[in-house]
């Protein structure tokens, strides 16, 4: 297993190189002129455009610009945004907040999602099952911006239970995390339910019940553990999605997170900003997925990594 | 485990799994119900004129955001267009985008995931890391690039525009399916029956299709039926930015996103397209459940 | 390369600052004035802390390169120029300047400055502070975003061309073409006096130099720019305390501020919001003190009036103007003025505003200059800006019509999509032709197409005045070589009238500007749509703040409730 882990860590190098190139190239390919928006309803002074073009290698062909970027990156220089702010400093500021938010959201979706999924799966067609189904339909068809706005107005402004926007405290991230995790929660609950239903039909469960083991123990120990592999996989994949994809929730609750940084970077055509933010994201994502793969063996002893 | 295949039916006529499934399906209320809803939705998408006489593009600013009434059952939207007509006419683009994108990601993701999980080792490493790279691209960035590379003009036929939106959403959407499929295939391939089939000398294609896939497809079905609804809403984000479907195409997603600022004053603008989207997703979730039950070998 | 190492130092310092701030972030005082009100105890001097919504400044806080709202508001709070504009009327009045004396043809001005003004670092504000700052802003290699304010589009100081350098046929800057570092038109007479010679007569000089590009800079800026960017130093009522990137910028009242009136509030936090909806929710919940613009989520259905009852206001802004421009140089399709007039007649501005922004939240335009500006004449657009379906159809029938679908181009964000859709609905219903929006995902992509002259159908144009003058609404936008003439409108008569007006003063000048404006209504190459109203809200912690002529918070008017 040690070898497997080392191999997987080694594989990160080509992925990071591939990702940086892919992202850099995509931002490069974005249509439009990055400096067209910076001077209101008139073109920017040519001096300014020229200076920025030279400073950010915007005139060089893609491979050269990319190599220059990577050269700097290897020396630990993440570069600057077009506003002259350090990208490294911004990453250091935003990632901890985003990580907190993401972990909270994951906590919400795992705890509530698994519980709801189990209750729904045990009694197909029961009250909880239908509740899970209806909630799923609701969160799927109400977009997250509406959900966020409603949650903010209700629990923040009207009831005052939560801060309306983020004040930097962990508590102020709870409401956004619930909103952020709500859609994934539906996925988790339904995945747990489906796998539980399926596994409850297997021979070994029937055997266990026939042997007279208490139903709770059968479900808790034998079935649930075996049902969790797709759930863990989904949560692992979702982790990455939540890290970078929280733009809307970050906006509603004014959280200075990475999603906004990536969004702004794309809008401003800042290749360096987007690439740096996404690369860190990919690293986190790959480590999480490695952990997920290792978890497979824990959840199902038949699976071995060689 | 030995009872699995056709154990209960020592019938004279050899029947396939699919044949059994179909017989079961026809009797399943879940299936009949969902099929009926889907048929209605398909009819709506194909011949919207059957359901309404109103012209969804005849709008009058004077009626902007008026609530439901006898004249307009669903009220009017921001532009003073009849919401009922627009919801009916919106079915086509929304269902096409939702279903096609889901099919694309389910197929691509399943194939990649299945090979990675089944073969393991280098194949897995290569495919999984490839998936990681695709995963990294922000949806917005990828979609802008795809849609900017193939720009639509006012004269582009709407099926082409829809195709581009499906491509834009699909190209980055398959990664989760791939990982889900890979995870269950890894689990399933350890099972006795798969080992047995391999031991008996079945080709890997046969093992994959006959033994692994039917047992590993459940999580992908669950994921796909829900993500279908998400794609319909995501399409609206692209449309809103001006790179997705554009007028004169009508879609639920656009209606939902238009309602954004007005949820407190004019909830009907969100309610009706949202409800139709819910029903669509419900139908597909039910269908997924029914089909999975029918194909589950353990229920035989 | 040198640039990047220099920035490296700033970054290191900024990170240190962030850590310190994070460490003492415990005493949360956001918007709550009870704590700070207690410690002073005196009615003299500024008291309390307030928060104002802001955006992350896009550029370093240097007046000559700050041209967007987020940075602009902070720069305006930190600096005072020779001239400042009256909050209410926008009328320019002397601030740091003791006097500004023009010669008889408005080509030379002698400026003396008041004694006793100092920068926040204690150094005195002298004539040199202004001359150095202006030369820095105009110097080509410095590539300042507000450079053009010193050239023909703004004050037109003599010797600008030599300092700014040249561009070649493709528009690229010619290396080494800036032959001088200082403008010949600027001359320091003594410590407190300097003269400005202009390249052409300009009666508006006194108005123009109130703009932030003309603020003075302390000596320390020229010796160590990196340190300045990290801790900017101005001469205005508020001084810089600290910046937490993407979160807030904090200012405090400058004790030795020489201007009048004095600040009434001690600390101002400019809180960065990526999405204005969040700021709206905060001000409703009293967690933000001042919101200078109500977003669509509040305007829709007028919920802001009940959400913020007794602590909100709306007033017409004299500085913003939205229009639709026909491209005239890259296509013949819009060459017929009657077609342009027919389209203008077909837009029911009142209904479009009601649908897109809420009834009455914007004002239908019937002129190219918003009311409140000197020289505004009501209805210069006349009948062409009044919705009239019959007349529109009649006029349209006389033209060759629109080929295919009428497209209107805009960026889709910023609430523009809504009105474009509504305008199209209006045109479609009136003229019976197909009309659709043609959107770019963001302002940048849209402006790139406009700047490249690629759009061959009518498109959105908006203007925010740099300084309060009718000239600023006409010259840059509609003269043949105006810096913001997007549609390629060209009328030699118009150019001539604008040129003549620049050499005149008072009513004489205004008359010529009005004559020029009436030419616009004959051509209708640019359709006026509406003027903005400014809606704003505040918390129960503060008294009603006043707003500047530009529609932003006047920091000197802010006071906390006792």
Task: Output the keywords.
heterotrimer, A: 306 residues, globular, C: 562 residues, alpha+beta, 5-stranded antiparallel β-sheet, 4-stranded mixed β-sheet
Q: How much helical structure, as a percent, in the residues of chain A?
A: over 70%
Q: Helical stretch count of chain A?
A: 12
Distance between the termini of chain A: 6 Å
Rg of chain A, nearest Å: 23 Å
Helix proportion range of chain C: 25-40%
**What structural class should be given to the helix and strand makeup of chain C?**
alpha+beta
Largest sheet of chain A: none
**Strand count, sense and closure of the main sheet of chain C?**
5 strands, antiparallel
Roughly what fraction of the amino acids of chain A lie in strands? under 5%
Mean pLDDT of chain A: 84
Average pLDDT for all residues of chain C: 86
Order of helical and strand elements of chain A: HHHHHHHHHHHH
Note the total helix count of chain C: 19
| Poorly predicted regions of chain C | 1-42
- The oligomeric state is heterotrimer
Radius of gyration of chain C: 24 Å
**Gross morphology of chain C:** globular
- Globally, the shape of chain A reads globular
Structure notes:
The complex is a heterotrimer of chains A (306), B (300) and C (562). With 306 residues, chain A is mainly α. Helices cover 74% and strands 0% of the residues of chain A. Chain A is built from twelve helices and no strands. The mean pLDDT of chain A is 84. Chain B has 300 residues and is mostly helical. Chain B has twelve helices and no strands. Chain B has helices at 17-27, 29-46, 83-119, 121-136, 139-149, 158-173, 175-188, 192-199, 204-216, 218-241, 252-258, 268-295. In chain B, helix 3 packs across helix 10 (218-241), helix 8 (192-199) packs antiparallel against helix 9 and helix 10 (218-241) crosses helix 11 (252-258). The N and C termini of chain B lie close together (12 Å). The relative contact order of chain C is 0.14. The radius of gyration of chain C is 24 Å and the shape is globular. Helices cover 32% and strands 18% of the residues of chain C. With 562 residues, chain C is an alpha+beta fold. Chains A and C meet through helix 2, helix 4, helix 6, helix 10 and helix 11 of A and helix 1, helix 9, helix 16 and strand 16 of C.
